[in-house]
Specification:
With about 350 residues, the protein is an alpha/beta fold. The protein has one domain: Rossmann fold. It contains eleven helices and 14 strands. A seven-stranded parallel β-sheet has the order 3-2-1-4-5-6-11, sandwiched between helices. Strand 5, helix 6 and strand 6 form a beta-alpha-beta unit. Helix 3 runs parallel beside helix 5 and helix 7 runs parallel beside helix 9. The relative contact order is 0.14. UDP-4-deoxy-4-formamido-beta-L-arabinopyranose (WQD) binds next to helix 7 and strand 8. UDP-4-deoxy-4-formamido-beta-L-arabinopyranose binds next to helix 7 and strand 8. Its cofactor is NAD(+). It holds the Pfam family GDP_Man_Dehyd.
Length: about 350
């Protein structure tokens, strides 16, 4: 359809990227997907086309291949970018830091240089709550506000901090020009109600909910709960689980905010936490999952996992107020949609 704004979505076949593409179409945008399919498959593109009801332009390109990425800019008129593409496994990043620094930072540099060259000034960046590190070490910072000092404890988190810094420096270099939204996700969970897109990581999942899904499907024998000796209501650690559809809506809200700034010929670079604003313990999520699944899945309490902290819950007042965004779904909805 003519007249629609076109959003370049890097990592558009990924978990959060694909859910955001659906929301973008539902809000009248057209998308171009760029993905190297490192952690997804081209089947996702077909599923997305089914969901949005039209063909979607897809380039199987790695953002580290600047020539390949430039072809996307040369062949299309792009109004804005949402940048998801990134290596994102915390544990893996500690084992192969060089790969993480190279891939994540070079991808961002290539993207920003081409945006400058082709005069695309609006970018929504997928950052992560992991930039805060162990916020419980900062007095009065739970729930975590955007003003909490940053303290990444792994190379993955450090690459996000470096890219955030890069965006701030670029914004300061020309305060009128660039419109950047930095979205710090807490723990995304759940799936689109259609069941056509969801979290399907290649290999053994790192995260709690997809791990429980693999126990339920029999791929994995049992869930190990990392520690029940935390000073919390049931001894297990607290996180802020946000439904991926709410998260996707948050990206559209942020894009609209940046477009308004563009209309006002204003530059901006600003962070927003995207979480539910509510903390849930591991056992509470486990119980919600079993309820949605319809039967108990086996688990065993084991020792704490290195790097885990007692509580990471988001303060989301800024996004609620400024982006006019409010999470509508909860952990139970997420577990139901995932089981579907
Ligand atoms: C959640 C809770 C575990 C698995 C990570 C990244 C973060 C972000 C989201 C990218 C913790 C417990 C988990 C299991 C368990 N990713 N758990 N058994 O560690 O909060 O955040 O994912 O941006 O960067 O750090 O998520 O799902 O791994 O763990 O008991 O098999 O579940 O201890 O308390 P986490 P998680």
């Amino acid at each position: 359809m003519s007249g629609r704004k076109t959003v370049l979505v890097t990592g558009g076949t990924g978990y959060i990227g694909s859910h955001t593409v659906v929301e973008l179409y539902e809000n009248g945008y057209d998308c171009i997907l760029v993905d190297n399919l490192h952690n997804s498959s081209s089947q996702l593109v077909a599923n997305l086309e089914t969901l949005v009801g039209e063909p979607i332009k897809f380039y199987q390109t790695d953002l580290c291949d600047k020539k390949g990425l430039e072809q996307v800019f040369r062949e299309n008129r792009i109004d804005s970018v949402i940048h998801f593409a990134s290596l994102k496994a915390v544990g893996e990043s500690a084992k192969v830091p060089l790969r993480y620094y190279r891939k994540n930072i070079l991808a961002a540099l290539n993207l920003l240089e081409l945006m400058e060259q082709y005069e695309v000034k609006i970018l929504v960046f997928a950052s992560s709550a992991t930039v805060y590190g162990d916020a419980t070490k900062q007095p009065g910072m739970i729930p975590i506000p955007e003003t909490c000092p940053l303290g990444p404890t792994n190379p993955y988190g450090s690459t996000k901090v470096i890219i955030e810094k890069l965006l701030h420096d670029l914004h300061i270099s020309d305060e009128k020009l660039w419109k950047f939204a930095i979205l710090r996700y807490f723990n995304p969970i759940g799936a689109h109600p259609s069941g056509l897109i969801g979290e399907d990581p290649s290999g053994v999942p790192n995260n709690l909910v997809p791990y429980m899904a693999q126990v339920a499907s029999g791929k994995i024998e049992k869930l190990r709960i990392f520690g029940n000796d935390y000073d919390t209501r049931d001894g297990t650690a607290i996180r802020d689980y946000v439904h991926v559809v709410d998260l996707a809506k948050g990206h559209v809200a942020a894009l609209r905010y940046l477009e308004k700034k563009d209309d006002e010929n204003e530059g901006i670079c600003r962070e927003w936490n995207l979480g539910s604003g509510t903390g849930s313990t591991v056992l509470e999520v486990y119980n919600a999952f079993c309820k949605a699944y319809g039967k108990e899945i086996p688990y065993e309490i084991v020792g704490r996992r290195d790097g885990d902290v007692i509580n990471l819950t988001a303060k989301i007042d800024r996004a609620v107020k400024e982006l006019n965004w409010k999470p509508q779904l909860d952990v139970a909805d997420a577990c139901e949609s995932l089981c579907r």
